[in-house]
Amino acid sequence: MTRAASAPGPSFQELFTPKLVTALKEGYGLGRLKADAVAGLTVAIVALPLSMAIAIASGASPAQGLYTAIVGGFFVSLLGGSRFQIGGPAGAFIVLVATTVQTHGMDGLLIATILSGLMLVAIGFLRLGTYIKFVPYPVTVGFTAGIAVIIFSSQIKDLLGLTLASPEPGPLLEKLPVLWESLPSLDPATVFLALATIIGISVLKRVRPHWPGLLLAVAGAAAVTALLNLDVATIGSRFGGIPSHPPIPALPAVTMGKVIAVLPSAFAFTLLGSIESLLSAVVADGMTGRRHRSNCELVAQGVANVASGIFGGVCVTGTIARTATNVRAGAATPIAGMLHSGFLLTFILVAAPLASYIPLASLAGVLAIVAWNMIEKEAVRTLVTASRGDAAVLLTTFLLTIFRDLTEAIVVGFALGSVLFIHRMSKTTAIETDTPFVAEDEADPVGGRSGAAPSDPEVVVFRISGAFFFGAAASIGSVLDRIADTHRVLIVDFAAVPFLDSTAAETIRGMAEKAERRHVRVILTGTHHSLRRVLFAHAVKPPLVSYERTISEALERTHPVPAEA
């Protein structure tokens, strides 16, 4: 019997051709350019205050947030594997970036960003993007909710205008007492601006969802601050405004010691960035019916991070909210994302002096909205009520994110999710027998012995169904080991087994060796090529066992039907 030739996989060129090239080959006219321009401008208006707010919360300057969106966003769209992905600084990175800046300084952050970019490029070219998407859903929901709590807690000081007697601690349990002790320093004007921003964004989203609520609320807060000459912290008072010139490339001071020191941060950036960007691409696919190229997307994210680090930016990833805005605004091709970067650059060149009036309280209000939206309330409710296992994974990831470390939370959550999956898979693997372990008395069959019948007390037939892997090997092995001394032949059918692993093969080998010592013949049936390859590799082959295509053929070999006279 000849095996059908397997279809060839996609070529390197097919896997790593940017979606921009694909879109341009389809034809690009004035209509598409207009749609992309409108979408790019819409996203830029959303990204302007958001990029500055995320950068400030991360311990960087507002200009660095804008540089990240301009440079990183351009390369994500230019080289990416998604038509609609918008790259830039993301709220999910705030905790990691802030920790890196505090521990290793700004040069350390830039080095870690560049190293992360190189790692993402390597992961993409090694075609590992498909596996990154296997992170369990409860883990992504849990760490996203945990990050949201940390983001909000980091903005309490700017939301209330508190004056702290000592530097603000990073860990939540240490931060809250310090903030509580500083409550008497609450500034009413700051609270007013923060609440006005939050309420303005929320109301505009409900009554005018197509209006740029983030920008309008922040611009309104800046206008009130300037007109009333409010004594509150602004971008100008804390950072001296933002530069009115394009970002200038420059390499950070690199030493081998610094590289080794920031490697853990680079790994964390890579892990979170790959998950976040591919999730964003999946969301865009769901909204448009298109399909992204995972590995091409990771390569683009890697190049974008290298470029962002060289131009003084922070970590770049695909951003779900801005990508969704891009789709809703009618984007047709990746040129929309490239134009979004161009519009942001124009804003810097033209309106940089106006940014000095933006109160930090309004940007904190923006991040408070971001944190609230990051918590997938419906997903949390569903996971908590649907399964105790999923609820445990969600809660563990959430708590570890808040009180321990994001990387640890993802690793532990993934491990728990994997154990839960193995447990569930093991429940789907079953074994049944056609012969009871204790033979019952029965009448003689009419016409004498029916030698080929599986009810022969000397022959026992087991059928295994489902994936036969290490999670199910112990339970199935215990059943197979219960071979009665009266049995002369053991038939194990694999017709309903899609695959088996090395643990399962060792289980079968151990069972066969035990049967051989008891002088019981073992026949394996229904094994296809891939199963036999694993079994043969573990010495499960003649003369230890014999193979037949079906149970019927095995029974015929066991009890040949006598020839008619």
UniProtKB/TrEMBL annotation:
Gene3D superfamilies: STAS domain. InterPro entries: SLC26A/SulP_dom (IPR011547), SLC26A/SulP_fam (IPR001902), STAS_dom (IPR002645), STAS_dom_sf (IPR036513). Residues 449-558 form the STAS domain. It is found in: Membrane. Pfam families: STAS, Sulfate_transp. This is Sodium-independent anion transporter. The chain crosses the membrane at residues 37-57, 63-79, 109-128, 135-156, 189-207, 214-239, 259-284, 343-372, 392-422. GO terms for biological process: transmembrane transport. It is a multi-pass membrane protein. PANTHER family: SULFATE TRANSPORTER. One of its GO terms (cellular component) is membrane. Keywords: Membrane, Transmembrane, Transmembrane helix.
